[in-house]
């Protein structure tokens, strides 16, 4: 039987100077294998002590520490206090980004950039005020505090809902650094170009591969936060992404593509070079397999539409979780505050504790402490210490993603006293908004392997890798495609299919979930740039999932749907 197998990652950790918290490991690894084999199990539970990772602890970048952070905070916060603000906070941020893009065997573009600035946010007269700038001087901090207070005064007559913030203990002088082995910004650009370009060249040289596109991105995010309540945090996190896609053109002008399925991760350069022995991706192995998989896909039969049982790999299901659960359970969206960008949500607050989101096999958590998660951080952009919380438990909606204002305003209905740490701004020029935690479907302790799930299917499809999708403006009616589709007959894979999309409503789809795999099938996928808000902001977020079995899901033939 052909099973897409991955070795599991070694466990990482978030390094905190104020104490470590347990967090779930990521399961990452090598490419889909064309040979028979069981999932290669990592004999660990879903939660691990971060100290067990063995990754080095990193110091906050010296250039960021050299910025006059305390002086700016003192100037801004004292000014806001003197002007009567009941709450004030300051963020000082530096965002470094680096990217490479390749076309066939050649480097197409290279970018290195950095953004530095500060932002002051206040509550004055029960109304928000905000101001941002780039001049890192005490005089500018004072000016921004005055501007933020003045904005609140101007807006106050229009404000029908006085701002109240959920309480949060003070976290003084807290320091947090994400888990990674090698700072990608300390790696010579020539080495990065050679590594990613070499993978592109190898794939481009393969038989029947006509074009190759590749990219690599790295981000280092430094944040300093301080507020009137006495919290001050200094944080650093690193994340990387790489994707390489092959295109095969047939004599008639048609084409098929296949992309690597490696997820973006909250790790460093080791993700590109360390290999499975270090819990990282086997890039060379996957690149070697893609030409054969692509050739098989090009010759595969077009799917017959209709109901199928689906075994969905986490490399595909992460995106379905993101769109149908992650966005749908952002409380600002569920309450209608977020509508113009990607709509509202069917999962409204009045259904908390009653909505059957899915089957009893479905338990989903939000977690900003997940190891190597893209949304993982020690403290959010309101100074809230992050944690894990339940969103769907045994198929029932039990929680939402919150910031401090949403938590306070809806405390009685939610049954919470504090925010669960989901405030984030993508730059010092933007105000924090409620953003997604690492929202993940939990595996079953002692649960089945992917092979065992496939063996339960008489007629079905095994789906691997994400591709295109669409979802309506209430996160309810959707369809998703993928990278690879394997036909299942009588519990065995018999070959690839093409032109597959699965379509359902959110509650019907998750209600058809019969079984989730064990921890050995778990993988943390994710999005490097998830959009929300107006003005638009982007955020990185991971979504973990085990392999899963769904019964009777409607499958479309995308070629026929397109009239071809």
What's a quick, concise take on this entry?
The chain has 564 residues and is α+β, with helices and mostly antiparallel strands.
Task: List its traits.
single chain, 564 residues, alpha+beta, ten-stranded mixed sheet, 26 strands, 21% helix, metallopeptidase activity
Give an account of the 3D structure.
With 564 residues, the protein is an alpha+beta fold. It has a domain at 15-57 and 174-301. It contains 13 helices and 26 strands. The strands form five sheets. Strands 9, 10, 17, 18, 19, 20, 21, 22, 23 and 26 form a ten-stranded mixed beta sheet that branches. Helix 2 (69-82) runs parallel beside helix 3 (138-155) and helix 4 runs parallel beside helix 6. It starts with 14 loop residues before the first strand and ends with a helix. Mean pLDDT is 91; it is low at 6-52.
- What's the main sheet like? 10 strands, mixed
If helices are DSSP runs of H or I spanning 4 or more residues, what is the number of helices? 13
Q: Give me the secondary-structure category.
A: alpha+beta
User: How many runs of DSSP E, i.e. beta strands?
Assistant: 26
* Uncertain residue segments: 6-52
The average pLDDT score comes to 91
Oligomer: single chain
Q: Beta-sheet strand percentage? A: 25-35%
**Through-space gap between termini:** 33 Å
Helix content: 10-25%
Shape: globular
CA gyration radius, whole angstroms: 24 Å
Domain Metalloprotease TldD/E N-terminal: 88-152
InterPro entries: Metalloprtase-TldD/E_C, Metalloprtase-TldD/E_N, Peptidase_U62_metallo, TldD/PmbA_N, TldD/PmbA_sf
GO molecular function: metallopeptidase activity
Pfam families: PmbA_TldD_1st, PmbA_TldD_3rd
């Amino acid at each position: 039987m052909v099973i897409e197998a991955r070795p599991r990652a070694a466990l990482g950790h978030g390094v905190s100077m104020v104490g470590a918290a347990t967090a779930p490991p990521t399961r990452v690894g090598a490419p889909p294998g064309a040979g028979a084999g069981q999932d290669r199990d990592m004999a660990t539970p879903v939660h691990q002590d971060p100290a067990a990772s063995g990754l080095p602890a990193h110091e906050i970048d010296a250039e960021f520490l050299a910025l006059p952070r305390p002086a700016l905070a003192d100037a801004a916060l004292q000014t806001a206090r003197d002007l009567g603000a009941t709450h004030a906070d300051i963020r000082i941020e530096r965002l470094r980004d680096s990217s490479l893009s390749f076309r066939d065997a050649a480097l197409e573009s290279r970018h290195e950039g950095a953004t530095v600035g500060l932002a002051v946010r206040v509550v004055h007269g029960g109304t928000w005020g905000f101001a941002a700038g780039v001049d890192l001087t005490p005089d500018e901090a004072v000016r921004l505090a005055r501007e933020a207070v003045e904005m609140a005064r101007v807006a106050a007559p229009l404000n029908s809902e006085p701002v109240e913030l959920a309480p949060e203990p003070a976290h003084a002088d807290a320091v947090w650094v994400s888990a990674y082995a090698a700072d990608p910004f300390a790696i010579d650009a020539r080495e990065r170009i050679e590594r990613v370009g070499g993978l592109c060249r190898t794939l481009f040289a393969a038989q029947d591969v006509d074009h190759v596109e590749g990219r690599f991105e790295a981000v280092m995010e430094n944040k300093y936060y301080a507020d009137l309540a006495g919290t001050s945090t200094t944080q650093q996190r690193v994340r990387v992404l790489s994707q390489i896609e092959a295109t095969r053109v047939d004599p008639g002008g048609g084409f098929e593509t296949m992309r690597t399925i490696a997820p973006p991760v909250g790790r460093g350069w080791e993700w590109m070079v360390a290999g499975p022995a270090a819990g990282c991706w086997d890039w060379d192995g996957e690149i070697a397999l893609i030409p054969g998989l692509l050739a098989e896909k090009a010759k595969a039969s077009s799917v017959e539409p209709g109901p199928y049982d689906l075994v969905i790999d986490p490399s595909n299901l992460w995106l379905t979780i993101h769109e149908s659960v992650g966005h749908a359970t952002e409380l600002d969206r569920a309450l209608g505050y977020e509508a113009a960008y990607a709509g509202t949500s069917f999962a409204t607050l009045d259904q908390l504790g009653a909505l059957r989101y899915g089957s009893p096999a479905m338990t989903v958590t939000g977690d900003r402490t997940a190891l190597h998660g893209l949304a993982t951080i020690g403290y959010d952009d309101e100074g809230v210490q992050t944690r894990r919380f339940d969103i769907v438990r045994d198929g029932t909606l039990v929680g939402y993603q919150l910031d401090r204002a949403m938590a306070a305003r809806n405390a009685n209905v939610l049954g919470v006293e504090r925010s669960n740490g989901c405030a984030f701004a993508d730059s010092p020029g933007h105000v924090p908004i409620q953003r997604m935690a690492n929202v993940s479907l939990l595996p079953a302790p002692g649960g089945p392997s992917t092979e065992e799930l496939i063996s339960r299917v008489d007629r079905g499809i095994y789906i691997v890798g994400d591709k295109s999708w669409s979802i309506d403006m209430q996160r309810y009616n959707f369809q998703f495609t993928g990278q690879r589709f394997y036909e299942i007959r009588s519990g065995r894979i018999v070959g690839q299919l093409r032109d597959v999309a699965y379509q359902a409503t959110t509650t019907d789809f998750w209600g058809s979930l019969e079984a989730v795999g064990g921890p050995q099938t778990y993988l943390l996928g994710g999005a490097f740039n998830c959009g929300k808000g107006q003005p638009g902001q982007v955020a990185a977020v991971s979504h973990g999932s085990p392999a899963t079995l769904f019964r009777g899901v409607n499958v479309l033939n995308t070629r026929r749907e397109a009239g071809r």
